[in-house]
């Protein structure tokens, strides 16, 4: 597919004008960032892995009736997606205490939570994507109460699906975040899962060893990120079991 007009460029993906109205082309970059882009690398092959993994998860969600923006994978790095209005919130689902939650509450990482917990953060890198209560979200007009109810329901369905898929291949779904978009069809609006689902947006631990298989490998200097993501792809059957890691990190000066 010929490259089209650039619509938006983020830390890990670039969006281009799609071939038809209401579509976009989503390109997965090899850039890895952490701590609001204060730490940066280029991990060769990361974009290829995330493209394939996100395709796998989005397709699986659609098969169980969860609507997503995904239409088809175009090539190794690009997907055709529906154009949606992104709600300026990250929807976080936690099954175990980890990361900022563990630090905030003084909990040991890996502590099971009594039930899946859903949090919202305001999408603003300059502010560090702060957690926000529902009262803020409604008062500032980011989403209505009905939207919030629908977002929580979507997030919990995604959690059920991802937890089962990961458990079947020996991986613990610690937590994850998704973005939700508004899709307008005439006068009708519906909410759908957008952005991506990949090890960039999930915490994934080996069930037996608690080895990290997600972006914490990069955040905490725990090893090679390409190796971790390749292991996830291998277990899920997204890559042949005899495939070698797609690349080694290249530092940005």
UniProtKB/TrEMBL annotation:
One of its GO terms (molecular function) is ATP binding. Pfam families: SAICAR_synt. Its EC number is 6.3.2.6. It comes from the Bacteria. It is an enzyme of class 6 (ligase). Pathway: Purine metabolism; IMP biosynthesis via de novo pathway; 5-amino-1-(5-phospho-D-ribosyl)imidazole-4-carboxamide from 5-amino-1-(5-phospho-D-ribosyl)imidazole-4-carboxylate: step 1/2. Keywords: ATP-binding, Ligase, Nucleotide-binding, Purine biosynthesis. GO terms for cellular component: cytosol. The keyword Nucleotidyltransferase does not apply. SUPFAM superfamilies: SAICAR synthase-like. CDD domains: SAICAR_synt_PurC. GO terms for biological process: 'de novo' IMP biosynthetic process; cobalamin biosynthetic process. Residues 6-235 form the SAICAR synthetase/ADE2 N-terminal domain. It catalyses: 5-amino-1-(5-phospho-D-ribosyl)imidazole-4-carboxylate + L-aspartate + ATP = (2S)-2-[5-amino-1-(5-phospho-beta-D-ribosyl)imidazole-4-carboxamido]succinate + ADP + phosphate + 2 H(+). Belongs to the SAICAR synthetase family. This is Phosphoribosylaminoimidazole-succinocarboxamide synthase. It comes from Litoreibacter roseus. The gene is purC.
């Amino acid at each position: 597919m010929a490259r089209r007009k650039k619509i938006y460029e983020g830390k890990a993906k670039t969006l281009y004008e799609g071939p038809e109205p209401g579509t976009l082309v989503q390109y997965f970059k090899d850039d890895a960032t952490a701590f609001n882009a204060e730490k940066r690398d280029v991990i060769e092959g990361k974009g290829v892995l995330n493209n394939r993994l996100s395709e796998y998860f989005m397709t699986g969600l659609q098969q169980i009736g969860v609507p997503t923006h995904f239409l088809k994978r175009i090539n190794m790095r690009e997907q055709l997606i529906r154009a949606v209005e992104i709600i300026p919130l990250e929807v976080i689902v936690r099954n175990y205490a980890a990361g900022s939650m563990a630090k905030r509450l003084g909990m040991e990482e890996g502590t099971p939570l009594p039930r899946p917990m859903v949090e919202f953060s305001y999408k603003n890198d300059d502010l560090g994507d702060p957690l926000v209560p529902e009262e803020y979200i409604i008062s500032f007009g980011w989403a209505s109460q009905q939207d919030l109810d629908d977002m929580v329901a979507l997030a919990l369905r995604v959690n059920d699906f991802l937890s089962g898929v990961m458990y079947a291949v020996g991986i613990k779904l610690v937590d994850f975040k998704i973005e939700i978009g508004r899709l307008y069809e005439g006068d009708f609006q519906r909410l759908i899962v957008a952005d991506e689902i990949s090890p960039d947006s999930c915490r994934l631990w080996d069930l037996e060893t608690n080895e990290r298989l997600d972006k914490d490998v990069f955040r905490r200097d725990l090893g090679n990120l390409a190796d971790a993501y390749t292991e996830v792809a291998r277990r899920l059957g997204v890559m042949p079991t005899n495939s070698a890691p797609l690349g080694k990190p290249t530092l940005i000066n």
